[in-house]
Amino acid sequence: MKARVLVATTSRWYPTVRLAMALASAGGAVDAVCPDAHPLRRVSSLCQAHGYHGLAPLLSFARAIEIARPDFVVSGDDLATQHLQRLHAEQQRKGKAGFAVCSLIERSLGDPGSFPVVSARAAFMDLAHKAGVRVPPTQVIRNTDDLGEWAARSGFPVVLKANGTSGGDGVRIAHTLTEAERAFKQLQAPPLLARAVKRALVDHDKTLVWPSLSRQRAVVNAQAFVAGREATSAMLCWEGAVLASVHFEVVEKTCSAGHATVVRLIENAEMSAAAEKIARRLSLSGFYGLDFMLEAGTGNAYLIEINPRATQVGHLALGPGRDIPAALCAVLSGRRVQPSPKVTEKDEIALFPQEWIRDPESPWLRSAYHDIPWEEPELVRDCVNNRKKQSAWYSRPARGVSSAASSPKPISAATGSPAVRTELGNR
After folding, report:
1. Which structural domains are found in the chain, ordered by start?
2. pLDDT tens-digit profile of 242-252?
3. pLDDT digits (tens, 9 = 90+) for 5-21
4. Sheet of 301-307: strands edge to edge?
5. Is the peptide bond before 157 cis (omega within 30 degrees of 0)?
């Protein structure tokens, strides 16, 4: 019997689509709750798409769960995780009437006692430190006085991070107190009403409307800067154990604080041990990502944050123990893991459309494995033709990228040449 999986997302991120495709390929029956015009709705392997409405998010998720009756819910972004956590609290207050939904969310996210920790950067870093994981000092900054005291004690540069953000949106690196104070005020400020209206009218995404109208301020944290190379882990957890994981070094990014566009598969014992300690300490279930800095000179792996959701590399099938979708479908159906064939023997992977958008002439599009989903030509067309309509993750060109990169030429899977429309026409 197929495992029934509901992919829940509030943003039109292409990595969520790739994960849904991978889950279906691994043998799952996949539904989605997502905004209108989400590229998920173009995927042929999706069973059914349920509407997500930013002004009634919990009702949207509850209705999708009622109709789909999933065995598991995959959170595709941080806001979706927050909605699931809030839905759990709402259903818990209903007693027996909410038991089924609460059990589903706990099966999908883990122990509800972990919910406040994974959503608060400083609290999570404190827990990781107590679990024996190497972490940089991190502290909640409530005002500019706190920031001045941190700077006097820890020095510069300092990394400022807002809770509940991802993809580099809520991260600033400051080298002076003036820069830090400016960044703190920007990160703490509620979303601008103009931005919320634009997202609602153009992107059909109403998730910023309430935070803007209610003038919600973000919690901002300061973290000590670790010089080195960035790395990331994606993992599937089940009742505190890690069932499958992949570890990558970041090779290219959209910008200094942005998301990765090219990654290199690595083995790192310290990163693997950290993943196991965190999963066990928090009794995690479901999809999580961990971000690290590999310290220059020593190679020590410093854990810098957790992503309580599926990350953009979670769909990749890279062999036994490294196929997260196959591991999930196996545990839900009670059978042995049957990993899909490895998508590549190369260690370097150029993520599509991320690296193509960053630099359409990037040499990585030719030398690395370029992860284009050719089996879904409509999805590729959507990536190519509608880039300007995509969410903020892909709509901002990287700093220093030429104007040509902000309007990228299509590319082919084989050579990286400007020929994607020709390729699609032949398929």
Report:
1. 4-108 (3.40.50.20), 137-224 (3.30.1490.20), 366-427 (no CATH)
2. 999 999 999 99
3. 999 999 888 999 999 99
4. 301-307, 286-295, 228-238, 241-253, 260-265, 348-351, 369-371
5. yes
